[in-house]
Amino acid sequence: MDWDKLRIFHAVADAGSLTHAGDSLHLSQSAVSRQIRALEESLNTTLFHRHARGLILTEQGELLFDATSAMAKRLDTASARIRDSEEEVFGTLKVTSTTGFGTMWLAPRLSKLYEKYPDLTIDLMLEERVLDLPMREADVAIRMKEPSQADLIRKRLMNIRMRLYASEGYVEAHGLPERIEDVSGHRLICQNVSAPQVSAGGALIQRLLAHEIPSLLYVNNYFGVMQAVINHVGIGVLPDYLTDDVPNLVQVLPDVSSAEVPVFLAYPEELRQSKRIAAFRDFVTEEIMAYRKRQLDENVA
User: Rounded to an integer, what distance in angstroms lies between the CA atom of residue 178 and that of residue 15?
Assistant: First the structure.
């Protein structure tokens, strides 16, 4: 098959329109249409259904688009590796993590990375869904469990626990529970046990809910839980890495916590030599070491 025709087909399938594909390829609509017809003739099949609202892939078109998408992602990987300078860090790095860790721990620290590498662009994708690193949905991931995908380099960064926290204002107004049974006299802020979250956090919430708490606020990520806590809504279930960065938090029932949750950094084997990956990995590692040192100093004090 003609590589140039495949490139044009991929652009049309991605855009769903000859006109939009032509704009992105800097070709006229008629030129794009001729290339698509020639490709269909060479394959002896129809790749698109023509519709009033645009183009829709046929079953054969879907098969070809899956192939060209995989090719495009592999080419992006090769291009990224080629562009990586031996001495400079530049270009775009796609980073994925959970909403909580990304907003509350990672994003506030990125200024240090930009100070060192001002030409770097970070595309930060925060969601609970685990993105496919080998298929280049992201370049590097920070996750609250060990990645299961093959062909990934993984590094264990630290262990965290889910604990109970309240604001100083809430404590002044409502006091602190002295035993776990006493949480029934307070409003609990947490994720719904059926929501996507680390299993250790869900287990802790189930343990707390066994005490018949009358008033609850469910939020589907830890950032939302934290916002409610610092605004005195109640007692929240939050990861303990927050305590290093959020002032005026009071730990509630220090002996009550989840099991340890491992935090992993992972990236594809094929990006092992990427200077952008190395810069980000080293930055995160240094920040984790500084965080651990502060935690150790506080425990000693």
Answer: 60
Specify whether the CB–CB gap between 208 and 187 falls below 8 A.
no
Q: Rounded to an integer, what distance in angstroms lies between the CA atom of residue 15 and that of residue 116?
A: 37
In tens, the pLDDT along 9-60 reads 999 998 888 888 888 888 898 999 999 999 999 999 999 988 777 788 999 9
pLDDT tens per residue across span 202-217 = 899 999 999 989 899 9
DSSP assignment of the chain equals: --HHHHHHHHHHHHHTSHHHHHHHHT--HHHHHHHHHHHHHHHTS--EEEETTEEEE-HHHHHHHHHHHHHHHHHHHHHHHHH--SS---EEEEEEE-HHHIIIIIGGGHHHHHHH-TTEEEEEEE-SS---TTTTS-SEEEESS----SSEEEEEEEEE-EEEEEEHHHHHHH---SSGGGGGGS-EEE--TTSS--HHHHHHHHHHHTT--S-EEE-SSHHHHHHHHHTTS-EEEEEGGGGGT-TTEEEEEEEEE---EEEEEEEEGGGTT-HHHHHHHHHHHHHHHHHHHHHHHHHH-
List Cβ neighbours of 85 (8 Å cut-off, separation of 6 or more).
275
Q: Identify the residue whose tokens are 């719904």.
A: 192
Q: How far is CA 233 from the centre of its chain?
A: 27
d(CA 103, CA 97): 9
Q: Kindly tell me if the per-residue pLDDT of 86 is higher than 60.
A: no
Report which residue type is found at 122: I
For residue 300, pLDDT over 70 is answered with no
